[in-house]
């Protein structure tokens, strides 16, 4: 039957077209993922997880970590001052990433903070302070970051005992602009994939 054969070939062609379309979607999807990750050269790693979507929040320490004891908490006593952040302990050199779409407003080295940076989340006018990084930040002042973009690694530079991230959350108008540091632990726990 001619009609039957025609129908079969139409079905086959439609199936092939659908296959080609999904293949193209895969290709362009991968291109978009690479672009979001900052345009890394070389072939995409098919086993790598997709980068976090714009506007999402990710935990700043990308590896096994813990929140230490009471001394690591916001408000814990220190010689001559109180602790204005939360310490997150992790193996030295564990990657540190931007928690969301942020802009680098400050980078530097200070004898207490060690290698540090300040990221601004414009939408909420929140600032995030990362201290004791192993090396100078991998990003520069003015740079706009995507969620999950690496900014450095966990270290113990400055006044730190044991490798950890000292993390501060400053509410509007921000870091040393009249804002104030608040306890970042509830926020960190909300982002923490282990909780
Ligand atoms: Zn600390």
Note down, in words, how this protein is organized.
The protein folds into 2 domains: 1-43, no CATH class; 65-191, Glucose Permease (Domain IIA), CATH 2.70.70.10. It is 22% helix and 28% strand. The protein has 2 helices and 12 strands, in the order αββββββββββββα. It has helices spanning 2-36, 185-191, and strands at residues 65-66, 77-78, 81-82, 86-90, 95-97, 102-110, 114-121, 126-133, 144-145, 150-153, 164-170, 181-182. The strands form 3 sheets. Strands 1, 4, 6, 7, 8, 9, 11 and 12 form an 8-stranded antiparallel beta sheet that branches. Strands 2-3 form a two-stranded antiparallel sheet. A two-stranded antiparallel ribbon has the order 5-10. The radius of gyration is 23 Å and the shape is globular. It binds zinc ion. Zinc ion (ZN) is lined by residues 83, 85, 87, 166.
Shape: globular
Count every helix, treating DSSP H or I runs of 4 or more residues as helices: 2
Give the uncertain stretches in residue-range form: 21-40
> How many β strands by DSSP?
12
Percent helix, as a range, is: 10-25%
Structural class: alpha+beta
Tag the structure with descriptive keywords.
single chain; 195 residues; alpha+beta; Glucose Permease (Domain IIA); 2 domains; two-stranded antiparallel sheet; 12 strands; 28% strand
Secondary structure layout:
Elements: H1 2-36, E1 65-66, E2 77-78, E3 81-82, E4 86-90, E5 95-97, E6 102-110, E7 114-121, E8 126-133, E9 144-145, E10 150-153, E11 164-170, E12 181-182, H2 185-191
Antiparallel strand pairs: 1-4, 2-3, 4-11, 5-10, 6-7, 6-9, 7-8, 8-11, 11-12
Bound molecules: zinc ion (ZN).
């Amino acid at each position: 039957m001619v009609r039957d054969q025609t129908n079969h070939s139409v079905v086959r062609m439609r199936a092939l077209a659908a296959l080609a379309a999904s293949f193209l979607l895969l290709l362009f999807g991968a291109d978009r993922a690479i672009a979001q990750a900052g345009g890394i050269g070389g072939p995409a790693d098919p086993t790598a997880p997709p980068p976090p979507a714009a506007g999402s929040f990710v935990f700043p320490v990308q590896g096994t970590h813990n929140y230490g004891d009471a001394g690591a908490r916001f408000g814990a006593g220190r010689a001559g001052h109180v602790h204005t952040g939360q310490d997150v302990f992790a193996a030295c050199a564990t990657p540190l990433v931007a928690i969301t779409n942020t802009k680098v407003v400050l980078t530097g080295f200070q004898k207490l903070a060690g290698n540090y940076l300040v990221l601004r989340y414009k939408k909420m006018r929140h600032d995030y302070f990362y201290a004791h990084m192993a090396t100078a930040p991998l990003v520069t002042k003015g740079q706009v970051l995507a969620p999950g973009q690496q900014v450095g690694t966990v270290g113990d530079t400055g006044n730190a005992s044991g490798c950890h991230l000292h993390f501060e959350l400053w509410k509007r108008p921000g870091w040393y602009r009249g804002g104030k540091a608040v306890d970042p632990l509830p926020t960190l726990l909300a982002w923490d994939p282990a909780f």
